[in-house]
Amino acid sequence: MTQVLDDTVLTLYSGVRERSQALVVTLSAEDMCVQTMPDVSPTKWHLAHTTWFWERFLLLPELEGYVEFNKEFNYLFNSYYERVGARHPRPERGFLTRPSLDEVMAYRAHVDAGMRSLLVGDYVARNPDAEALIRLGIAHEEQHQELLLTDIKHVLSRHPFGPAAYPAGNTSVSAPALGWVEFDGGQYSFGHVGDGFAFDNESPVHEALLTPFALATRAVTNAEYQAFIDDGGYRTATLWLSDGWGTVLGEGWQAPLYWRRQEDGSWNEFTLAGEAPLNPHAPVTHISFYEAAAFAEWAGARLPEEREWELAARTAGGAQGRFMDPAIAAHPAPASAGEGLVQMFGDVWEWTRSAYSPYPRYRPAAGAVGEYNGKFMSGQLVLRGGSCATAPGHVRASYRNFFPPDARWQFSGLRLAKDI
User: Fold this and answer.
1) Between 130-157 and 6-23, two packed helices, what is the crossing angle to 10 degrees?
2) Which of 105, 133, 245, 298 is found 20 to 30 A from 84 (Cα to Cα)?
């Protein structure tokens, strides 16, 4: 990886830490302590865990004379790093009334001071592997910024009056008509290329054979998904994968996670700006892989393979799109009109039908940081493209997100594909 000056690394570090702080300005201390389901972590925990990462992997081993803030935090705020030690159970993070929010903020300040001490000298220049670890830490905190937003959305959605966390953005435009872009079959290379940061699961570069396919020009909209609902989509077993149909029956699914039917039959949607009438032109979001696959079956299409999506994304002009803005509510907006593929990046993560598995010749990194991605390569599906809650600059065409097939609390939607 190309080395950069320490002050540049310090600027990147300070920027990501400041963005985390900006995301919680409008939240109360009480907002930040709640856990509404096992997949949701309290905001306070995200703020502490991302701080723990810097302390555990950079400051304790690298900064001479650094004083650990609180030894108990290694147990409380470790997420899943087995090599680092035992950890508090994830479903019980909401039980942690202590440390207080004030103490967590003091922890952040303590670690930030330590990181400034580490980076003001020539630490990066003297340590060839330092930049890669720091950029991993930055990407890690960006991931938790997204989780912070999706988790606090679930928390506030359980309040009887659905309070707003952030002001709403402008989403008044109409979506363009859905079209198709065709791609030739052939042998192509996939995976991350270049000197920029990427996670280990995006490598190594490898070749794969694709048959000709077409990809929809934009994501599926709320109006299109509502037509699926109105046509009995949640009552038609033949549209669903077996596990998906069992989940529909067991969970009583009738619509995407935050849709709320009104007395007149219309739909509202809970957003981070509070409850609002459903925007028919915006991409459908907060759907599971099962729902995405059922819709695709109903539409006479299918979900894309992840390598099909990656090949198509390379033609989309870079990872430009609607990403996180700490000043407004994260919420997908209608696609902009344009030629060819639009909305490939940002707005909603797009489910693929590809299992999350290692690329050929993949090996996880050595040490505890090697537990970051490889250990989860079982029972999950790949999503691509980022969302309105993803930090700007975080994703790229080769980026592989992954969640279990029943996950709905992320900003996940779909784009159709078909064989040609």
Assistant:
1) 10
2) 105
Rounded to an integer, what distance in angstroms lies between the CA atom of residue 410 and that of residue 80? 20
**In degrees, to the nearest 5, what angle opens at C-alpha 141 toward C-alphas 136 and 143?**
95
* pLDDT tens digits, 127-140: 878 888 999 999 99
Q: Is residue 209 within 8 Å of residue 187, measured between CB atoms?
A: yes
Residue 295: count other Cβ atoms within 10 Å of its Cβ: 25
> According to the CATH classification, is domain 180-419 in 3.90.1580.10?
yes
User: Residues near 43 by Cβ (< 8 Å), separated by ≥ 6?
Assistant: 24, 27, 31, 32, 33, 148, 151, 152, 155
Distance of CA 277 to the CA centre of its chain: 25
Indicate the pTM of the whole model: 0.95
Cβ-contact 111, 55 below 8 angstroms: yes
* pLDDT tens digits for range 183-232: 999 999 999 998 889 999 999 999 999 999 999 999 999 999 999 999 99
Q: Find the helix or strand (DSSP H, E) in which 134 lies.
A: helix 130-157
**Which uninterrupted H or E stretch holds 45?**
helix 43-54
Q: Which two tokens stand for residue 212?
A: 């000709």
Give the Cα separation of 320 and 342 in Å (integer).
10
> Is the C-alpha dihedral spanning 392, 377, 353, 411 positive or negative?
negative
Dig out the tokens for 290 from the structure.
Answer: 């099962």
Q: How many Å apart are CA 267 and CA 92, to the nearest integer?
A: 34
CA torsion sign for 388, 394, 395, 396 is positive
Cβ atoms of 298 and 228 within 8 Å: the answer is yes
